[in-house]
Amino acid sequence: MTLDARMELTRGGFRLRLDVVAAEGEVVALLGPNGAGKTTALRALSGLAPLASGHIIVDGHVWDRPPATFVAPERRRVGVVFQDYLLFRHLSVVDNVAFGLRARGVGPREAADRALEWLETVGLTAKARTKPGRLSGGQAQRVALARALATRPRLLLLDEPLSALDARTRVTVRSELKRHVAAFNGATVMVTHDPLDAMVLADRLVVLENGVVVQSGRPLDVAREPHTPYVADLVGLNLYDGTAADGRVRLDGGVVLTVPETLDGEVKLVFPPTAVRLHPERPGLDNVWCGTVHAVEQHAHHVRVHFDGPLRGVADTAPSTIAALDPLPGRRLWLSVAGRDVHGFSRNP
User: How far apart (Å, rounded) are the C-alpha atoms in residues 164 and 310?
Assistant: First the structure.
């Protein structure tokens, strides 16, 4: 493993407990709501927040193991791309990229040559003498990445690397970032709020809530079987707890659903909002329950209906169906879901 970290630290009344391992070339994404501990984890890895207990080991070298060992930030082989990039506005692009090299004692000529090599790698040679204020958001992100990689780190930290970009620019820059990170032979730890960024860029996800890990695994596995409401919302699924027996699951809200899978005991059920059908009157179907409209949102190509009742969740429906449903807040509707669209898994894997 390039990175082996077992981190415990306290800041004010907040306590973080997090294990992160990453092999050479692997990208680990930390996800979680605000205040979950993601930024605290990056501060610990970079050396800005010493551990209370545990260890941080990179390539077999101990960076932090209280109380005996603590390597200062400037002596760690770590590169950081900050959320707002933090480029030096008074320096040219090439001098920004060379800054970390110069700070580590590399001579001005060599630092400039290596900086120009990195600008060529990220496709910005033509902007070498430009000041950051004249760059687009995508170009600034690439300069920040080049600056972080120019020092040849063994650990790359990405703090919300695409959050400062507009939606159209993110598509292109996300693809470019994936290509550059894939070529990096160290370990990468990325913090993001965006599930798409995580799914596209990361090899493994670690989800934090209130300073502890609630789920980790490959993006596909996390998306298929979310363990908490936050994770379910993140990947766009309705999630319910229940008890299974004989092909039926009694959910905690009292609704009973028939499922095609063989399940037994305490389970979780998930299904996408697109699988939920809305009816003005009770339909002659299985897996039916009555709910109350809580809110309605217009999205690009569908209408999202938030419902309460014995089950709370969301349903996505076509705009053409709305007139017949008249889903005003407080209106009672019947809801249904086909068994084939429901996926269940053990609550205690």
Answer: 40
